[in-house]
User: Fold this.
Amino acid sequence: MDQRAPALPETDARTRRRRRLAALGMLLAVLIYGSNFVISRHAVLNGLTQHDLMALRFAIAGVLLLPIFLRPGLRSCGGVGWNRGFWLAVTSGFPMTYLMLTGLTMAPAAHGATIGPGTVTMIGIIGSVVLFGAALTGRLMIGVAGVLGGLLCLGIAGSAGASAATLRGDLCFLGVGLLWGFYPLLIQLWRVDGLVATAIVSVLSLVYLPIYFLFYFRGFDIAPWWVLALHGFNQGVLNVIVGLWVWGWAAHVLGPSVVGRFPPLIPVTGTLLAIPVLGEIPSSLQLAGIVLIIGGLFVASWRRPSRQPHHEQVPAD
Assistant:
């Protein structure tokens, strides 16, 4: 008995350590995803194009994740079938990435960091109700109203500017949210492992490379090698592989009710980093829109919507 007594406290301490590490992992993923808008915006303002960044992103991620894609066999497209693989690639592959990076050539990074996650949340709520029978609560409705109000403020601010470029960039970010919002819904609906889905998206997006080399390739000397290596690591490794793995592991340890509190920190991170790195000071109306979207995300995601009893088989994550 005496030898077995310390086992329970030791197990509890190990559990607490894992949860602390998982929380730190979620913060790391938030930093990766939030700062990506700022880093990508800095890149396109300093010589690299959205096409260069996309080529770096999918060339690196696609090659690194190719073994996972091929493991079930090429004919099965990563084990999900080519029809499902196509839609996964559309919602999270180079079409979505093209819209995001193109938007960053015209609009501030803070807009991308708020409009994208805000629209994703809206799609997620609507999809959960339609596909999985999630119950709409008062908290969710308040959050949705905040996100819609924030998007409206950013739209008015963009249309009132001296140039229509900001508005076009915001429309690109809206398209990002509309596409990206369906990606987690499809993963839940088809019960696809997160890393497998990322491998499918990355490998199928390699189809963009011939287009890039035919029409947009400007040589390997468009920037110093260390700049290309840095952005390649950020795009292909940090955002596609590390962020996904850390987020998935932390979600498993913490559970969906806790994990839902972290996504609203992405626009906070992107907005705050854009001020010192890019010198992007939002106007009063833009700031109001950003605050409304962030507040709406916090309210909507603080507690996951309860599901109807006959939908208990739907995975919580």
In short: The chain has one domain: 19-311. Confidence is low (pLDDT under 50) at residues 304-317. The CA atoms of residues 36 and 148 lie 24 Å apart.
